[in-house]
Fold:
Amino acid sequence: MSTKNLLSLSFLLLLLLHIASANPVRPPHKPLSVAVEGLVYCQNCKKVGTWSLTEAKPISGAKISVICKNHNDQVKFYKVYQTNKDGYFYAELVGYQMNHPVLDHPLQACKVKPVSSPLSDCNLLTNLNYGLTGAPLRYEKKFVLGHNYRAAVYAAGPLAFHPQKCL
Structure:
């Protein structure tokens, strides 16, 4: 192979390497969603007035709300979710938008409150984990990944109701 051909081939390889590094092939962008999970219990009569969940029972069908406010204290997101048979809720915040990366971040802007219990004998709100004013979210390094989906999952609570009549 002549020197001229070798130089041309080297130049062509360098050009291809430059083009490849300038425009790397990236996977399609997956939108990031936000979700909140937690548990709702019926607090044992012996523990009413404390933050203890000893002997507490999960409440199936309890309702909780997720409330997110902006830095001007205006409600920007509100939705009610229901617990499953194990008292677990998974609240995907569909439509929630962060207009400011810090002030509108879910850890700063969102809280979870118990709304109602389907149990007539256990339907009074407790302030367990600040449920009355809104339980803050916790970041626990948890993500859900799907084919064209990814969600940052935060935790809140656990939250609780307590019985009306305790002997």
